[in-house]
Amino acid sequence: MTLTNLRRNGAKAFFLSLLVSTLACGGCGESGPETGSSPAPAAGAGSGTSTGKSGSLPRLVFLTNGNSDWWNAVETGMNDGAAAFGAQVEMRRNEGDTAGQIRLLEDVLSLPDVKGVAISVMEKDAPGIADKMKELTKQGKIVIAVDSDGPPDTRRAYIGTVNRKAGETAGKVAKMLRPQGGKVVAFVGTAAAANALERREGFFAGAGESFRVDSQHDAIEVFEDGVDKTKAMQNVQTAISKHPDANVFLGIWSYNAHYIAEEVSRFPDRRKSSTIVTFDLDELAVQDVVDGKIDATICQNPYEMGYRGVKLLKALIEDDKKVLGEMLPNGTDTIDTGVRIVVPKKDSPVKGDNVIVIDEMKKWLASKNLKSS
Amino acid sequence: MTTIVPDVSEREPRPTRGGPLSFLRIFRSPEWGLLLAIAAALLVIYLLDSSHAFFYGYRVQTLFHNVALFGLLAIGASIVIISGGIDLSTGSLVALASVISAKLLTDWLHGGGSAAAPSAGLVAVVIALTLLMGLIIGLFHAFLITMVRLPPFIATLATMAGLRSLAKIADGNHTVTVRHAAFRFLGDDYRVSLGIFLVAAVIFSVMMGNTVLGRHIYAMGGNETAARLSGVRTRRLKFIVYGVSGFLSALGGVLFAGKNGLGDHSLGVSYELIAITAAVVGGCSLSGGIGSIRGTVLGLLLTQIVIQGTGQVAPKGIDSTTIEGLVLGTVVILAVAFNQLVRTRRE
Q1: pLDDT value at position B115?
Q2: Which residues of B touch A21 (CB under 8 A)?
Q3: What share of chain A has pLDDT > 70, as a percent?
Q4: 3-state secondary structure of A352
Q5: Which domains are seen in chain A, by residue range?
Q6: A272: which residues sit within 8 A by CB, 6+ positions away?
Q7: Cβ density class A48-71: b for 16+ within 10 Å, e for less
Q8: Does residue A98 contact residue A325 with C-beta atoms inside 8 Å?
Q9: How high is the pLDDT of residue B187?
């Protein structure tokens, strides 16, 4: 084949088709900060919500640690916050691995128009993530942590549940449901994630000694799924057959709840003798609570994390001392969005100020246009 | 008996002699299309991102950093593919190497996670042991393929699962944090990683293009039976090929552990696909006997530009990770179709 032929028939076709396909995939929106003067989409129309002229509003990015239904509620709050406080926002979802989150951080580091970053830290002890968060700060971007905190020197503030306290609440709930104690199997995406460690530690502190295996070990086994939903389900199946003496099933990450409920309820006798306590309320888990397949779930407020996250980032970027004084009084760096304990029925043995029956919770979700929390 | 060793001049073109325009023969190289594709991708990014941040400072660093880290894996993958085999264990070996190096450095050889910085000697020993482990695992693959007669796909599929499990056992299902700068700088400083990668790329490019060993690997990949009947010691070649792949995967694992600051059993999921994709985009034929290290490096550069470029030009409000697979898949199809077209025209 001659050079002329090669260029005319092969390379040219390849070049043109590559150009066209890449343009088709990537060219469906704004091209850069300077060109973003068109009105932004309406609130709730998906991520990227802003008000007024988007070019003049700060661009904020939320980076997740994993990808589940739960983040949809954060995204809704984030979009509502952007509409309320004036910002361009977007969420970039990690798939549950440290290297993936580092890559997302690198992406943001190369976006000069991003002014603020809210990150759910994948692993608190990962120097690779901490280094990138510090680089963001060096670039002049404001960094806060949401949902899962990082080392204090890597972020300006943390918004979310104080996971240790949420864990303690879960432990106390387990104790109310099962005063005699029990043997716990736990399920989580990444056992080493800060929120997972803190929730687990808090759970056993709240539940007491009668839930521990012995002084050295808390749960019988902690099953890790790497945010693989199929694996999450298989883990429950394994736990049911491997540990016939397990009678407390603890779902540490949101999506674990449904798989525990689904698999344990296949064995009615086992279900009767077991207690299921989970965290959060994925869309699938809502019906599980209604059906009584979950005894109680400790529900964070992801909507508020998104909403207040935008408000705080905007205030930090603009150094709005009034708002900062309200959100972070007395020099604190943590905003606790609190938890609610969702139970199937009013006659649940779980009592307390923050206990809410699933029917009421469903009404609240509908009022915020949410399907999960 | 005539030695049937294919002419590899098309795969690794040698310097040309002849008329004043003979340098134009370089445009016959299959890598020419890749250069065009890279130029096209860069042009698209330039046009779509008015900040042009992709072409400056931090983005260039991360681009070459990722090319360096994944490049080591891609070189190993391409040598195996050229030899007519496949290595699916790369990602799992990366995870195992990251865990083993981290455990050696923080626990097994350094006294229970001592905060004191390890000596340079200890770091060297840790790396040497990890690389040795990678080499042994590669040789084990060759043993399974040549002695037990398992197909390469099955042998490395089995170890893909097994090695990740070993990594979990080694780290007790928890990540191992590595803070020691003496270890981390290898993978964390993009200049060092790039240097290591370039040295490896040059060594293996010369090996494949300019040595008898390389020609025998091409011959085995093109037609193993013919190569064996011609006197090529194919068993020995497979031990070399899979040993190199294992060694480079372990080296990749050490560098990834340095970059992330973690030994992590969940690291490297699907990294073998990134490596194989780079090799295939770079002109390697999955049926063996065709390809080059140079093409693989360009293929990796193209795929990384596409992946990172998608993150750069993704419209505001769109999560770039949702569309990068689509863009990358399109580029892979186009690139491989182009390679196929050129190959068919030549024949």
Answers
A1: 60
A2: 327, 330-331, 334
A3: 85
A4: coil
A5: 43-160+302-336 (3.40.50.2300), 163-299+339-367 (3.40.50.2300)
A6: none
A7: bbbbeebbebbbbbbbbbbbbbbb
A8: no
A9: 93
Instruction: Tell me the torsion sign for CA atoms A10, A13, A16, A21.
Output: negative
CA distance A300 to chain B (A): 24
**Which of A6-15, B32-41, B230-239, B248-257 is the least confident region?**
A6-15
CB contact (8 A) between residue B310 and residue A26: yes
Give the residue carrying structure tokens 């490596």: B275
Q: Are A146 and A182 in contact (CB under 8 A)?
A: no
| pTM beyond cutoff 0.90 | no
Instruction: Say if residue A367 is exposed, middle or buried (CB neighbours under 10 Å; 0-12, 13-18, 19+).
Output: exposed
Q: Grade residue B173 by pLDDT with cuts at 50, 70 and 90.
A: confident
Biggest CA–CA distance in chain A, Å, is: 84
Residue partners of A266: CB distance under 8 A and separation at least 6? none
Q: How far is CA A9 from CA A20, B284, B345, in A?
A: 17, 21, 10
Answer yes or no: do A14 and B37 touch at CB < 8 A. yes
CA distances from B12 to A363, B78, B347 (A): 68, 14, 17
Question: Could you tell me the CA-to-CA distances from B220 to B226, B234, B318 in Å, in that order?
Answer: 8, 7, 47
Over range A83-108, report the average pLDDT: 92
For residue A31, count other CB atoms closer than 10 A to its CB: 17
Digit-coded pLDDT (tens) for A101-117: 999 999 999 999 999 99
Distance from CA of B233 to the nearest CA of A (A): 35
Among the partner residues A11, A48, A127, nearest to B318 by beta-carbon distance? A48
B259 touches chain A (CB under 8 A): yes
- DSSP E strand boundaries for chain B: 176-177, 262-263
Mean pLDDT of the A174-180 span: 96
Q: What is the pLDDT of residue A229?
A: 85
What rounded mean pLDDT belongs to chain B? 88
Q: What is the DSSP letter of A247?
A: -
Provide ipTM, 2 decimals. Answer: 0.72
Residue A18: pLDDT band (50, 70, 90) is very low
Q: Please give the residue of chain A at the shortest CA–CA distance from B304.
A: A103
Which one, of B264, B261, B246, B244, lies nearest residue B98 by Cα?
A: B264
Q: CA distances (Å), A334 to each of A125, A160, A341, B263, B305, in order?
A: 19, 8, 21, 30, 39
| Most B CBs within 10 Å, among A7, A14, A122, A137, to test the B interface | A14
- Contact present, A214 and A233 (Cβ < 8 Å): no
* Range with lowest mean pLDDT among A12-16, A90-94, A332-336, B20-24: A12-16
Closest listed residue to residue B104, CA positions, set B95, B113, B91, B115: B113
Q: Which residue has the tokens 């963001």?
A: A136
DSSP state at residue B173: T
Task: Give whole-number Cα distances, A168 to A230, A328, A344, B217, in Å.
Answer: 29, 24, 20, 61
A and B: number of Cβ contacts within 8 A: 204
Q: Comparing B2 with A81, which gets the higher pLDDT?
A: A81
CA distance B294 to B273: 19
B317/A29 CB distance under 8 A: yes
Query: How is residue B191 written in tokens?
Result: 């200049």
Give the model's pLDDT for residue A125. 84
